[in-house]
Structures are given as structure tokens and as C-alpha cells.
Amino acid sequence: MHDLQANTRNLDRHDQAARRLDFSEIPQVDIAGLRGGDPAAAAAVGAALAEAMETVGFVYVTGHGMPGSQLDATFEAMARYFERPEAEKAGLDIHKLARHRGYVPFEGLHADPHEGGADLQEAFELGLELPADDPDYLAGNMMYGPNVWPERPAEFRPVLSSYLDGVHAIGRLLFHGIALGLGLPKDWFDDKIGKPMIQLRAIHYPQQPPREVDGRHIGIGAHSDYECFTILAASQPGLQVRNRRGEWIDAPPLPGAFIINIGDCMERWTNGRLVSTVHRVINRSGAERYSLAFFFGADYEATIECLPTCQGPDNPPKYPPVKAGDWTTSNIKAAYTYRASEDARR
Ligand SMILES: O=C(O)CCC(=O)C(=O)O
Ligand SMILES: [Fe+2]
């Protein structure tokens, strides 16, 4: 476990100096070719995705099929939820639930352990919607089980659950594209994402004064994501992505596009071929900022072991195999206060 932990908090990525992250803007890829039945079109999308994910680790994706009106309605429902009284939101506090669902209050997340304070945000966590008699849930697995839902606003549940289904489907398409881009059969990942550890974080970053970053006024501190990849939508600018020169490149929302970024698990799975890039959020927009970060993790029981097309005689596997569930839970422990307090109670 100790080694795993050391590998997961990879903020001091000196190794990145030798990598390819020499970008000044985020590339764009239209993934419509993954949705039709044309294998050549799908292969072209896969190649373009892989190129972006090998060099930058972040990519704007269009042609995904989700209407803009759905995204607007989702941000609207989030805004109505986060303005509810603190005491009401506290009813579903993740610290009480002690599993990965519910309301994460201010002070609940600390993504960059090198920086002073907690991140300036509140959030709501959703995952794969499973029945109350799910055996993993009954066995106490913190990643699986039914979602919890606030009663107010009434539209929160239908709107967020429809968004979750939408990005989950887009994520499954992206796995096809990534497989093709890596020279694997399109369905390579399908049996490793049968009961995936998907996480949707609906996040609210309050307005903050346009002052210098002092480590205490940052929406989410510098970090890389730990799952396979993230599908991100944001209502305002504020996201910044770090290139190898240490410059922060702005990644504002583009109409009709999701931002996709590779996470540490996929970097590991691909032996470092796809890169998990450090990023942060500072909300200097002068407005409330809402974002939806959907993290696609593999099945709890899946083994993350160097892919066959990402190794060779001159490129042996760099990382030992790891169970996806161990990977995710150790990362959650490092970043969320609710897991730290959970451990302290034991
Ligand atoms: O809100 C955003 O734009 C990014 C959030 C993020 O990086 C995360 O939650 O991991
Ligand atoms: Fe992130």
C-alpha cells in the first residue's frame, strides 16, 4: 500500500521535464466518427485522440452528441442545489455517509498536499447507480451502491442522473477511440468497464477576489486526476493546465466541447504513453463557477497491467500490476478529509 500511495501523489513530476508536454494550447478532436459504423472514420478519431493524449494529455472533444441545452439545464439545477441552506445540504454530508457519495462541504477536499489550505469549493458526488441489494455495497465497498439525492431542488435528481448517463455513454465511446488509437481492438476495454467506478463530481466554486494565488484561495490545487480519464464541462473559465516549462495554459470552456484529460491510471496502464497532466482551477471569472467532472475508473476488480501494445524489448513495463479498486481508494484517502477521518475512527 505504501508504494502505491507514493506513486499516486505525483505532483512533483520531475520526470515530466523529459516528456512531451511542450504545448501552448489544447488540441481539438471531433469524435463523431466513433458514433457511426465506419471503421476507417473510427480509426482516424482514435489516432487523433491518441496523438493529443500522448503529447498534451488534454483535448477538447466535439461531435459527442450531447445537446448544449442539456448541459445548461444541468448547471442550472446545480446552481439551485448549492444555494440551499448549509444545514439542509449537511443532511447528505459525505463525512456522515462515509462512502463516496453525497455532499462534500467547503474544507472537504485538499487536492494539492504541498499547498496550505483546503480547496475553495463545495461539491456533490454521484456514482454508478446500483440497487440497495448490490452485493459489493452490502459488503461495505465504498465505491459501489445507490446514489443519495437531495430532495430540493426537485429537478436535481432527474437532471443530474440524465447527465450522468449521457457522459457515461460518451466515456464508453472514448474507451473505444483510445483502444483504436493504441492499436488494440475497439472493444479491448469493454470487459474491464462492466461495473465501472464512475464518479461524477458536480462542483461549485464561489466567486473569489482577483488576488494573487496564495495557496488559500484556489478552487482546486495543482493535481493530476487518478482515474483513467475525465470528461469535464465548466460554466466559466478558471481551469489551467501545466506544460513542461511550468507555464499555466488556460483551458476555458468552448461551446459544444467537453474537455477530456488522461488520468494517472491510464498513464500507468499505457506504460506512460498517454500522459496525465497537472492542472488546477482558480475562479477569477467574477462569477460563481460550476463544473461537472466525470471520472471514468475501471471495474474495482480489474487489473491495471501494462497493455500489450505499450511495451516491447526496449520498453519493458514500468509499473507492477495493481487492482483498480486499490488504486482508487488509496487516492481518495489522500485527497478527501472524509476518508482521513474515517481512518482515524478505526
Ligand atoms: O472544475 C474544473 O474545471 C476541474 C476540476 C478538477 O480538476 C477535478 O475535480 O479533478
Ligand atoms: Fe482534476
From TrEMBL:
Protein's UniProt keywords contain Magnesium: no
Organismal lineage: Bacteria, Pseudomonadati, Pseudomonadota, Alphaproteobacteria, Rhodospirillales
Keywords, sorted A to Z: Ethylene biosynthesis, Iron, Metal-binding, Oxidoreductase
EC number of this enzyme: 1.13.12.19, 1.14.20.7
Catalysed reactions, semicolon-separated: 2-oxoglutarate + O2 + 2 H(+) = ethene + 3 CO2 + H2O; L-arginine + 2-oxoglutarate + O2 = guanidine + L-glutamate 5-semialdehyde + succinate + CO2
Domain Fe2OG dioxygenase: 196-298
Species name: Tistlia consotensis USBA 355
GO molecular function: 2-oxoglutarate oxygenase/decarboxylase (ethylene-forming) activity; metal ion binding
Pfam families: 2OG-FeII_Oxy, DIOX_N
Domain of life: Bacteria
Keyword Iron: yes
Enzyme class, spelled out: oxidoreductase
Cofactor field: Fe(2+)
UniProt xrefs under Gene3D superfamilies: B-lactam Antibiotic, Isopenicillin N Synthase, Chain
Example GO BP: ethylene biosynthetic process
SUPFAM superfamilies xrefs: Clavaminate synthase-like
Record protein name field: 2-oxoglutarate-dependent ethylene/succinate-forming enzyme
Family of this protein: Belongs to the iron/ascorbate-dependent oxidoreductase family.
Pathway: Alkene biosynthesis; ethylene biosynthesis via 2-oxoglutarate
